[in-house]
Amino acid sequence: MNYYPRYPAHYLAKTLHLTMLQDGAYTRLIDWYYTNERPVPHAQRYAIARCQSSAERKAVDEVLADFFEQRDDSWANSRIEDEIAKAAPKIAAAKANGAKGGRPRNQNPSVTHEEPNGFNSNNPLGFSEKPRAKAPQSPYPITKSEIEKPAGVTWEGEAGRAMRDAGCHTINQSNVDFLAARDEGVTAKELSDAVGDARSRGINGAGLFAYAIGIARTNHAKTATTVIAPLPRAGPQPVQGKTMTAIMALEGMKNGLDQTRTADGLPETAHARLGTTAGG
Predict the structure, then answer these.
(1) Which of 35, 124, 200, 251 to pair with 279, CA 20 to 30 A apart?
(2) What pLDDT digit, counting tens, does each position of 25-73 carry?
């Protein structure tokens, strides 16, 4: 593709949280994506963005984690895939016309077309004579939540970045267990801690991602099932009725008798009435 629609307002809303390095990396990656009409190869991601330093390579990884989805050995973007699919028929038609020698010639040479000069011949000053069509708008509306908080920061991107910073460099944001962890409420911090835990156990390489997710989900489930007693309410406590007060008094008498029974099973008051002592 030699052209793709770029809507400045929508782009800004989605990338307000990016640094200058990250913004530059993102632009280079999407330009290459559109030009080649295929996902960004993982092994060539730094060369495609023309990275020269570790900071630039880190920016590329952060942008990929935020806006792209790793599929096998490449990084895909659903929005770009949609735009390429929509442009495909036009590109095919242009290629077909080119193979035929270009657009059809005018079949009526007696009809001439005046070259446009920007002004109507009856309106040399260029005043608008009729309302103009509205400028093209982004088909992807900007939501209120994107304006109120840093745009583009998804759970997947934040969690993927946290895991990568902790030492897990193979992230698959479409993994079913990864998405299940999201739905269960697992946080990026829990995933980061799980990566550290897994690495301390000697788990590294391709299996680290899945192992860490399993640890995070297990730990989160344990935390979620922990029952915390509610704190007492502030202010005056409710007044107990006479019936409840009597029941509590009887319970107290029963507990007192149970605690003062002697070795032979009789209460101390019974021994007092019999004039005996325990064991005597």
Answers:
(1) 251
(2) 999 999 999 999 999 999 999 999 999 999 999 999 999 999 999 988 9
Contact between 88 and 37 under an 8 Å Cβ cutoff? The reply is no
State how far the Cα of 181 lies from the Cα of 51, in Å rounded to an integer.
33
Looking at residues 111-132, what average pLDDT do you find? Answer: 56
Angle in degrees, CA 61, 63, 67, rounded to 5:
125
Residues 6+ apart with CB under 8 A from 56: 21, 25, 46, 49
Give dist(CA 64, CA 153) in Å, integer.
Answer: 12
Domain boundaries, the chain: 8-83, 163-225, 243-274
Taking the C-alpha atoms of residue 171 and residue 161, their distance in angstroms, rounded to an integer, is 9
Q: How far is CA 135 from CA 45, 57, 138, 259, in A?
A: 35, 37, 10, 87
123 CB contacts (<8 Å, ≥6 apart)? 129
HSE (side-chain half, CA atoms, 13 Å) at 61: 18
Place of tokens 């973007």: 77
CB atoms within 10 A of CB 260: 11
Other beta carbons within 10 angstroms of residue 32's beta carbon come to 18
- Give the whole-angstrom CA distance, residue 28 versus residue 31: 5
Query: pTM higher than 0.90 for the full model?
Result: no
User: What are the tens digits of pLDDT across the range 135-162?
Assistant: 566 665 655 544 444 445 678 888 888 8
Could you give the CA distance from residue 153 to residue 66 in angstroms, rounded to a whole number?
7
Compute the average pLDDT of residues 71-77.
92
Cα–Cα dist 29/172, whole Å: 18
Q: How many CB atoms lie under 10 A from the CB of residue 106?
A: 10
φ, ψ dihedrals at 254, nearest 5°: -60, -45
Q: Are 168 and 36 in contact (CB under 8 A)?
A: no
